[in-house]
Amino acid sequence: MIAAKKSGLKLIVQIPAYNEQDSIGEVIKSIPRKIQGIEKVEVLVIDDGSQDKTIEEAKKAGADYIISNVGNKGLAYTFQRGINEALKLGADIIVNTDADNQFEQKEIPKLVQPILSGNAELVIGNREFRKRNGGNMPGIKKVGNLAASNIVSLVSEDLIEDASCGFRAYSRDAALRLLVLSHHTYTHETLIQALGNKIKVIQIPISVKPRKFGESRLITSNWGHTKKSFGTMTRTLLMYRSLKFFSYLGLSLILLGLIPYIRWIILAYLDPGGDHIQSLIVGAVLILFGGLSVLLGFIAELLAANRRYLEEILYRVRKAEIK
Hints:
Elements: E1 10-17, H1 24-29, E2 40-47, H2 54-61, E3 65-68, H3 75-88, E4 93-96, H4 108-116, E5 122-126, H5 139-156, E6 168-171, H6 172-177, H7 187-196, E7 201-205, H8 222-240, H9 242-270, H10 277-321
Parallel strand pairs: 1-2, 1-4, 2-3, 5-7
Antiparallel strand pairs: 4-6, 5-6
């Protein structure tokens, strides 16, 4: 069991929301307020500058706390602000869910159970979109999520079924260690951070309902979302897996550079009098850049040691400030 400062554990369900007046009320009402092992369940809505009646509907539905951004700040900022506020409010466990009512809130007890039993610090919902018709997901979004999950799995050496799912549960300690730097989304960045910090991650299957009211307000363009997400993933991977990234890149370039050399040897044997210097030049350039890439990976890994020190200091400061 996770330790608590109080007699019982407090769960806060945070809901980032932007112009979701039609669905947020149903989301809040369907959140279970009694969960075995949890003394208190509270709901925190983080409004990202909505221009409709999202705040009014959240109040009517019984949200315990509502905070609003000044203007539209984006999903990543809104998520991180919610985490910070939930920690200040004394949350021992934080569940993040969406305001569009696509997730089954009745599955929250299943989501927090591995944390309660001490088997996980971060629990990720798996929409099982890899299955036929799984996840109620459009084709282009499914391809993007599949690519993202495969990249995270390859680099982290853990099989991540659904790296993009936002229906997650965080222990207090895990939440204190995570800091979103992206300006777009948080799902991939926090997952890579968690795996990089040796946070125990568990994945559980969840149900997904079709969206009833229009398109996502937080993600207005699938193509734009895909580009920004891969940009965020690349930056985060370079921060937490720099040696592996540059080593793979460097070794690939070196192996690619050997091909022109093999070609030169074959041509020199078949045509001893021919001039095949181009193959040697191309091969040398590729091998040179490959070697520089590997060297850059070692330098980045040395710099990453400073980042780990700073992360530990930030964790201790946040832990001391947010009691």
